[in-house]
């Protein structure tokens, strides 16, 4: 529509004025805000933008490839993909405390990003001068006063605090005045797929806080496959009255890996395998949340698919806890 086209043109013009012919670095996470910021800045300055995508190995099934297909394949943006999964798994070995895991993941994430960014800054006369971030208006308000410990962690994870100064970079934040809904509309207008732009939120530490206790590659691989089935079926099942998919009718839905084995039967044999929990909530602000009353047919389909298709998981449970007193995530 007209209003959105004007808005894009204006934003593009502003970015060009700010940046001139200088180079820009952006940390791409695959999340909505950094994706929309990347698409917008790329529209404005093309190859003057280099995105750094740190893959910590705790992303969802094929997520890294999807990000690359979109930004490199379709938008032709410059993206440096850093596969740091071994590094992260190494640092997480033997660590089971949730906050300790968050600190390690957040800390390593910044360290890896900084290392890559420093290379781009140090690239001679054409060295990068700007750090772009997908900060949106609610982030601006929120960082006015620190709230809970978790809120601080969330902030420090994706809006890498202090980093521009440390790298000697100027800060570019083209989404600073926008609310989430406006960011999503902008993303669609810029040609990002609606499934990407209307995705449920995904925590910075990723599957690291959805594998209870110690994180292991084996667990992450099982969880990724189970979770992909859950999400696929949420997108397949529609509610008759609204016509909406259950993915769109829930605010956040995911699978949690429990490092616990239980007994099952398969064919003539006994199995002794892992358990997963499905979590789906409805909320307007994520401060309180109700567990979603998913149709039994959907739960049944997901359960039977996970148990049949993911060897190593023989039991699926559904989390019927509201927040409070439970939290949305299990860690
Ligand atoms: P809880 O579990 O506290 O989650 O009810 C509320 C919302 O915050 C997200 N969350 C995080 N996001 N880093 C993030 O970027 C984190 O460490 C983190 N912990 C929780 C959670 O997914 C939910 O949307």
UniProtKB/TrEMBL annotation:
Boundaries of every GMPS ATP-PPase domain copy: 2-199
Keywords: ATP-binding, Glutamine amidotransferase, GMP biosynthesis, Ligase, Nucleotide-binding, Purine biosynthesis
Keyword rRNA-binding part of the UniProt annotation: no
GO molecular function, one term: ATP binding
Protein residues bound to ATP: 29-35
Enzyme class: ligase
Protein's UniProt keywords contain Nucleotide-binding: yes
Signal peptide: none
Any single GO CC term annotated in Swiss-Prot or TrEMBL for this entry: cytosol
Pathway(s) served: Purine metabolism; GMP biosynthesis; GMP from XMP (L-Gln route): step 1/1
Enzyme Commission number(s) from the entry: 6.3.5.2
Coiled-coil zones: none
Domain of life per record: Bacteria
Catalytic activity: XMP + L-glutamine + ATP + H2O = GMP + L-glutamate + AMP + diphosphate + 2 H(+)
Function: Catalyzes the synthesis of GMP from XMP.
Subunit structure: Homodimer.
Protein name: GMP synthase [glutamine-hydrolyzing]
């Amino acid at each position: 529509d007209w209003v959105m086209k004007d808005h894009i043109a204006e934003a593009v013009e502003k970015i060009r004025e700010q940046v001139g012919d200088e180079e820009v670095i952006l940390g791409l996470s695959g999340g909505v805000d950094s994706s929309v910021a990347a698409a917008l800045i790329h529209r404005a300055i093309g190859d003057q933008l280099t995105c750094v995508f740190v893959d910590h190995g705790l992303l969802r099934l094929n997520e890294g490839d999807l990000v690359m297909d979109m930004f490199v394949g379709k938008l032709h943006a410059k993206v440096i993909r850093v596969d740091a999964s071994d590094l992260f798994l190494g640092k997480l070995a033997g660590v089971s405390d949730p906050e300790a895991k968050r600190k390690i993941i957040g800390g390593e994430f910044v360290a890896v990003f900084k290392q890559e960014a420093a290379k781009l800054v140090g690239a001679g006369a054409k060295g990068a001068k700007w750090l772009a971030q997908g900060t949106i208006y609610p982030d601006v308000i929120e960082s006015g006063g620190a709230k809970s410990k978790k809120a601080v962690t969330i902030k420090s994870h994706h809006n890498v605090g202090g980093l521009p100064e440390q790298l000697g970079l100027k800060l570019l934040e083209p989404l600073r005045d926008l609310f989430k809904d406006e960011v999503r509309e902008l993303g669609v207008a810029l040609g990002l797929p609606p499934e990407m732009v209307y995705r449920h939120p995904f925590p910075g530490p990723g599957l690291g806080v959805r594998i209870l206790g110690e994180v292991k590659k084996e667990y992450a691989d099982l969880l990724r496959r189970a979770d992909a089935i859950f999400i696929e079926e949420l997108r397949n099942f529609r509610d008759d009255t609204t016509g909406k998919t259950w993915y769109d009718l829930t605010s956040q839905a995911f699978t949690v890996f429990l490092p616990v084995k239980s007994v099952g039967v398969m064919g003539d044999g006994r199995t002794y395998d892992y358990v997963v929990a499905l979590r789906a909530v409805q909320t307007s602000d994520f401060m309180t949340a109700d567990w979603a009353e998913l149709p039994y047919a959907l739960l049944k389909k997901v359960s039977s698919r996970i148990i049949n298709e993911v060897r190593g998981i023989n039991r699926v449970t559904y989390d019927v806890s509201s927040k409070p007193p439970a939290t949305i995530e299990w860690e």
